[in-house]
């Protein structure tokens, strides 16, 4: 009985630490967050935080991986929805990408780090949680190409365009703000505008191309 009680307490403490870390990482970013601040926000001492997670880096990695897993699982639900069209799926994907990255701007940088350090692990994690190749979305793309309602575009090209148009501005956030002299609020407005524009651009990319007879 005592062991079960200890596990419950441990689980509760770990969750408090993760919630506190998530809040501070979102507010201050990774570099601006100190372990003592996380401990204070969680209502524990620094020694206890170090006991559970050893370092800020380990805690950050755990939180980011959980966010990415949840994000990919949510994306697969969108891709596998049999009641929405290709365009509706694209609009939902872009909207969720933008909303998620506005709340969790460290995710793209973390993903780039994972690509550099352990690309196969990241790829396997994405495939496990999204299963893009087996999604209803892919079936719709193939059917659209077959019946001529969309252009003969390779799905990798489509997903590459969708992801790069949405995610790249978040990666280039500091550069864009410096070059164009905008603050974070203006950048957020810029991204909300892109949330409407990107599906329109993608629609043009996959629109069937007409052949002009000369």
What do these coordinates show?
With 214 residues, the protein is mostly helical. The protein folds into two domains: 46 residues, Homeodomain-like (Arc Repressor Mutant, subunit A); 150 residues, Tetracycline Repressor, domain 2. The chain is built from eleven helices and no strands. α1 packs across α2, α5 runs parallel beside α9 and α5 packs antiparallel against α11.
Q: Outline of this structure?
A:
With 214 residues, this protein is mainly α. The chain has helices at residues 2-32, 35-42, 46-53, 56-79, 86-103, 107-117, 119-130, 136-147, 155-171, 173-180, 184-206. The chain starts with a helix and ends in an 8-residue tail after the last helix.
List keywords for this structure.
mainly alpha, Arc Repressor Mutant, subunit A, Tetracycline Repressor, domain 2, 2 domains, globular, disordered N terminus, Tet_transcr_reg_TetR-rel_C_sf, DNA binding, TetR family transcriptional regulator, HTH_TetR, DNA-binding
Which SSEs are present, and which pair or pack?
Layout: H1 2-32, H2 35-42, H3 46-53, H4 56-79, H5 86-103, H6 107-117, H7 119-130, H8 136-147, H9 155-171, H10 173-180, H11 184-206
Helix pairs in contact: 1-2, 4-5, 4-7, 5-9, 5-11, 6-7, 9-11
């Amino acid at each position: 009985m005592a062991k079960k009680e200890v596990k419950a307490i441990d689980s509760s403490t770990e969750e408090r630490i993760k919630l506190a870390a998530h809040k501070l990482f979102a507010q201050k970013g990774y570099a601006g967050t100190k372990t003592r601040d996380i401990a204070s926000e969680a209502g524990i001492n620094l020694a206890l935080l170090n006991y559970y997670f050893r370092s800020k880096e380990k805690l950050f990695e755990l939180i980011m991986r959980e966010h990415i897993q949840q994000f990919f699982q949510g994306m697969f639900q969108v891709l596998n929805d049999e009641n929405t069209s290709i365009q509706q799926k694209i609009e939902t994907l872009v909207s969720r990408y933008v909303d998620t990255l506005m709340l969790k701007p460290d995710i793209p940088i973390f993903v780039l780090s994972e690509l550099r350090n352990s690309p196969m692990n990241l790829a396997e994690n994405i495939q496990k949680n999204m299963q893009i190749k087996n999604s209803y979305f892919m079936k719709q793309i193939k059917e659209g190409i077959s019946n001529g309602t969309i252009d003969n575009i390779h799905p990798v090209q489509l997903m590459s365009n969708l992801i790069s148009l949405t995610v790249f501005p978040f990666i280039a956030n500091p550069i864009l703000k410096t070059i164009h002299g905008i603050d974070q609020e203006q950048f957020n407005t810029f991204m909300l505008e892109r949330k409407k524009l990107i599906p329109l651009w993608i629609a043009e990319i996959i629109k069937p191309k007409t052949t002009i007879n000369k």
